[in-house]
Write a structure and sequence with these properties.
Blueprint lengths: L1 H6 L3 H25 L4 H13 L12 E2 L5 H11 L1 H20 L11 H23 L8 H6 L1 H9 L2 H20 L11 H16 L11 H4 L5 H5 L4 H26 L9 H18 L5 E2 L1 H9 L6 H16 L9 H15 L2 H10 L1 H16 L2 H20 L2 E6 L6 E9 L4 H9 L7 E11 L1 H14 L8 E3 L6
Parallel strand pairs: 4-5, 5-6
Antiparallel strand pairs: 1-2, 3-4
Helix pairs in contact: 2-3, 2-10, 2-15, 2-16, 2-17, 3-14, 3-16, 4-5, 5-13, 5-14, 6-17, 6-19, 6-20, 9-10, 9-17, 13-14, 13-15, 18-19, 19-20, 21-22
């Protein structure tokens, strides 16, 4: 034992951290799978691969990967449109794209995606996830579209309150949410057991003791759900919608993983994430998940932060969490059949609520109203249209806003009635603003000295520089001092 500890000095800390991460991951793996419309075991498969494959690869020391609530809506739509058999092919394509991006050293560029777009994406996912899972807590079938889910909630609740079975199911889901919220207020030693796991266990006990007639998780066995993509799945490669789904999965999974890496790095003083290698690790894990027909994976901030807080010191903690998931799936699969589905839906309602960035939106509105507007429009577009197009709309707005700000320029004229007229240009002078700049400058008096100060500019493109020099050379009337031009020496 002493020899083992000498070779692995942090084994004790990593062991206990892995137990905590396992307890956090277990209910979420099962809940995400059920909400995605696939067997519960596939969520465990993705969690196992996240631990045993991605966990061993270089990139990040503390990130823990697995199925994420943020992809639930997109996975559900893909399974509904293309079938569960094609899901593996889609995830395989995501993995190969991520590996290619990592090799091409694109991983770190995902940190350049506008925060408002990412927050808007998560907000839209959260809203659709909450709406969809509220139907599940009541044992009702949810409409297919995001807008339909939200619009149909009043009628769904009216139906639930008139049906005793639906009301029982709804109460069980609501109880799970209450347990998670109140659990966070208990002493720290109690919170060693994650609130989500406590909610599942308590809901399962209540269901069994009182014999409640609610839906429970359907169990097929670990080997029964693993399947390689077949010929029918590859036949979908000729469908443009499949390629759009692969791109959407890749964009969202990669952005979530890279933003999670940045967040986790702020929680510890250990080795920093190597983003390109982490992208390759995520891609390898998704490629393996795709070959097994499992759910896509991302780095998950909840599990990753739990790993850091629990004292994880090396990669061993995240690898061991995958071992515990494998042992549970192999030794206790029948335990899944006891879990009530409304409790899992309640957990995902809470997870969806956590995806909505209330605090960030308030801060953006106070400091950057344009960014707040992009967040709201992105989220609304995801609800009204779909995930992929909603993100594209958000990205387009972000680019348009950046282009607008990049071309913003301010001209301030100081004319005291006598002496020289001083004109100050500040901001970014580009050809997009050139007509407005020239109109203002040409209105200045030609029979008095003019000083044009460009030192307040952040950027001056070639078209503006040439036009301003030309204006300065011809503006002054005969017998008047030429325009004095204070140049921007660092302009592009």
């Amino acid at each position: 034992m002493r020899t083992v500890l000498s070779k692995f000095p942090h084994l004790r800390q990593d062991f206990f951290a892995s137990i905590v991460v396992f307890l956090v991951a277990l209910p979420l793996c099962v809940g995400v799978a059920v909400a995605s419309g696939v067997p519960a075991e596939l969520g465990l498969v993705t969690g196992i691969v996240g631990g045993l494959v991605t966990g061993l690869l270089p990139g990040s020391t503390f990130q823990v990967s697995g199925p994420a609530a943020g992809l639930t809506v997109l996975v559900f739509e893909a399974v509904r449109e293309f079938g569960a058999g094609t899901l593996g092919l889609i995830v395989l394509g995501v993995g190969l794209l991520q590996i290619a991006m990592g090799v091409a050293r694109i991983g770190r560029w995902f940190r350049a995606i506008s925060v408002s777009v990412v927050e808007g994406m998560l907000c839209g996912i959260g809203l659709v996830l909450i709406a969809g899972q509220l139907y599940t807590t009541a044992g009702l079938k949810a409409p297919e579209t995001g807008f339909g889910k939200i619009a149909g909630l009043p009628g769904a609740f009216a139906d639930a309150f008139g049906d005793r079975t639906a009301l029982t199911s709804l109460a069980l889901g609501a109880g799970a949410i209450v347990v998670i919220v109140l659990w966070a207020k208990l002493p720290r030693w109690v919170r060693t057991v994650p609130g989500a796991l406590a909610a599942v266990v308590l809901a399962t006990v209540v269901t069994q003791v009182f014999g409640l007639k609610v839906a429970t998780v359907e169990v097929e066995g670990l080997l029964g759900v693993v399947q390689l993509p077949g010929a029918d799945a590859f036949g979908h490669l000729g469908t443009p919608a499949v390629w759009g789904t692969i791109i959407a999965f890749t964009l969202i999974a990669s952005a979530e993983s890279m933003f999670s890496a940045a967040a986790v790095d702020r929680l510890h003083d250990g080795p920093r994430t190597r983003y390109n290698q982490e992208m390759i690790a995520q891609g390898t894990g998704n490629a393996v998940c795709g070959l097994l027909g499992a759910l896509p994976m991302t780095a998950v901030i909840v599990r990753s932060s739990a790993n850091v807080v629990a004292g994880g010191r090396t990669k061993a903690s995240r690898v061991l969490h995958g071992v515990w998931l494998l042992l549970f799936a192999a030794a206790l699969p029948s335990a899944l059949a006891l879990i009530p589905v409304p409790a899992l839906a309640g957990i995902l309602v809470h997870a969806g609520w956590k995806l909505i960035p209330f605090r960030e939106l308030a801060e953006m509105w106070r400091e950057h109203k344009g960014e707040a507007l992009i967040l709201v429009v992105t989220a609304g577009s995801i609800v009204a249209v779909n995930m992929f197009e909603g993100v594209l709309i958000g990205l387009a707005l972000s680019v348009a806003k950046t282009a607008w700000e990049a071309s913003h320029v301010r001209l301030e004229v100081i004319d005291k009635g006598t002496g020289p007229v001083t004109a100050y240009l500040s901001g970014n002078a580009t050809f997009l603003r050139l007509p407005k700049i020239l109109d203002s400058l040409e209105s200045l008096p030609q029979d008095r000295p003019v000083e044009l100060d460009l030192t307040g500019l952040h950027h001056l493109d070639h078209a503006c520089r040439t036009a301003l020099e030309s204006w300065a050379g011809r503006h002054s009337a005969a017998g008047t001092e030429p325009v004095k031009l204070t140049r921007l020496t660092t302009a592009a």
